[in-house]
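Section handout, structural biology tutorial.
Before the tutorial, make sure you can parse a SMILES string by hand: atoms, branches in parentheses, ring closures as digits. In the record below the ligand is NAP, and the chain has 287 residues. In the tutorial you will relate the predicted structure tokens back to the input. Do not try to memorize them.
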Amino acid sequence: MIDNEKKYVLVTGATGQLGSDIVKELTKREIHTIGIGSRDLDITDSEAVFNFFNSFKFSHVIHAAAYTKVDKAQDERDLNYEINVRGTENIVSGCYKYSIPMTYFSTDYVFGGDGDRPYREDDEKNPLCEYANAKLQGEELVKKLNEYFIFRISWVFGKNGTNFINTMLKLSETKKELRVVSDQIGSPSYTVDIAKEVVDVIKSKKYGIYHLTNEGYVSWADFARKIFDMTKKDIKVYDITTEEYNAKAKRPKNSRLSKEKLYSEGFSKMPTWDDALNRYLKEINVI
Ligand SMILES: NC(=O)c1ccc[n+]([C@@H]2O[C@H](COP(=O)([O-])OP(=O)(O)OC[C@H]3O[C@@H](n4cnc5c(N)ncnc54)[C@H](OP(=O)(O)O)[C@@H]3O)[C@@H](O)[C@H]2O)c1
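Predicted structure of the complex:
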């Protein structure tokens, strides 16, 4: 039951990987929360979003809804743009009208990936694909607000959705050998860990842009090896290059994000990606 006298934290994308764990984390901390999926509110419908913001009182809006099919976005350009740019613009408008602080999630893919060190928040952007381009446009819209957080996260895995780990486990049911890209390096990140840190950062009101991932860096190929090692599956993983894999969407080779800023602001150290992987595999009951 929604009480119109109370202020809520609104979470969009609450049926997705990250949004669902953010709702859990807020609820655990006894913060009044409304979590919505696309059936509750289509964020591309500006009138519906306007009416929604008129109907309830929000203390903060956490916008985790997005179009996240990176390769498909190369063909579904309009849909990607509608959800990731126009949809975000509608949410920003609601926040602007009622002076509500907003949190937005962006991606390591806004960078070009040719640098030789982990990217800092204000490094030059060079999105290589449609999805990344739209997410970067979303960032620019959010930056028009006075009070906002932008978290750039990477290689996300969580219980409520499809991700690299689930794909590897599915493939392992029918294959004995796999070819996996070994020249893209980044940080796999668990939605449970991101959610905890996000709520801590939001509570601090230290607004701005933050890079937020699990600790440590790995290639997709070594990540796959670790998944099969932990699940005791006898699958041979062969290294291939980005060019050999030839995905529809171009992705940065250096996807490493620096968390120097997060830590210098005093926020707690993130767990390592392999510790997170272990907990995730337990959560989905495969180990
Ligand atoms: N996944 C990654 O590896 C990754 C990496 C970096 C950054 N990010 C960013 O992190 C955030 C969370 O990603 P995720 O992986 O948790 O996403 P996800 O699991 O794909 O979930 C997407 C969510 O967006 C909602 N949504 C899609 N279209 C909508 C619409 N028109 N109106 C309202 N809601 C809509 C979906 O709702 P329904 O399910 O109800 O349709 C779902 O709840 C996104 O901003 C994403 O860009 C993700």
